[in-house]
Amino acid sequence: MTRRWAWRVTMAAACGCILALGWARTAAAQRRAGDAGEARRGERVLSLEKFEAVGRRNRVKTPEYETNINRGPGLPREWARVAVEYSTYPEWVDTLTFQYWVMALREEDGENAYSLYTKTVRYVDIRQGREHMSTVFLHPTALERYGEVVAAAVEVSHEGRMIESASEADIPVPERWWRNAQVVENQAVTA
Question: In this structure, are strands 189-190 and 111-138 parallel, antiparallel, or unpaired?
Answer without folding.
Answer: parallel
